[in-house]
Amino acid sequence: MPWLKLLHIIALVIWCGSLLYLPALTIQSSRARPDAGFAQNAPLMPRFFFISTATPAALVAIVTGTVLFLLHHQTGGWLVFKLFAVMGMVAAHGGLGWLITRLENGRTLGATVGSVLFALLAVSAIVTVLTLVLAKPMDWS
């Protein structure tokens, strides 16, 4: 099923890109003045991007990855480490969602530091996943 693997890769690229873009978007939103826009009561852009792009891509990536795992009966030590790295990506995703909720409630204190920390977590998890996937042919047992 090459189409399933292609869908998995596309969803991962979108999700990883979202995890790298959302911290910058939350930092920008935390610095925006509440009286500076023409649509003050409109939902924040981070919420829209989080709900419409990042979360669906994450769900598709996780579901297709699970189906691929079940179809190909993959096992090995690399897979356990990869799943822990994916948990790091999920934690960064959830943390960014929490920061967005805080911003919507007007609590901007710590948004920049939190965004940077979640960005670092996301980058380290993404690099770990890529490293483990590319090292898979080494057949870790």
Automatic annotation (TrEMBL):
Alphabetical GO biological process terms: protoporphyrinogen IX biosynthetic process
Cofactor requirement: heme b
Protein task: Catalyzes the oxidation of protoporphyrinogen IX to protoporphyrin IX.
GO MF, one example: metal ion binding
Keyword Lyase assigned: no
GO cellular component, one term: plasma membrane
Transmembrane among keywords: yes
Cofactor-binding details, from the entry: Binds 1 heme b (iron(II)-protoporphyrin IX) group per subunit.
Subcellular location(s) per record: Cell membrane
Chemical reaction(s) catalysed: protoporphyrinogen IX + 3 A = protoporphyrin IX + 3 AH2
Protein name: Protoporphyrinogen IX oxidase
Membrane spanning residue stretches: 6-27, 48-71, 77-100, 112-135
Stretch forming the signal peptide: none
Membership in a protein family: Belongs to the HemJ family.
Source organism: Vreelandella zhuhanensis
Taxonomy, superkingdom: Bacteria
Membrane topology: Multi-pass membrane protein
Keyword annotations of the record: Cell membrane, Heme, Iron, Membrane, Metal-binding, Oxidoreductase, Transmembrane, Transmembrane helix
E.C. number: 1.3.99.-
Pathway: Porphyrin-containing compound metabolism; protoporphyrin-IX biosynthesis; protoporphyrin-IX from protoporphyrinogen-IX: step 1/1
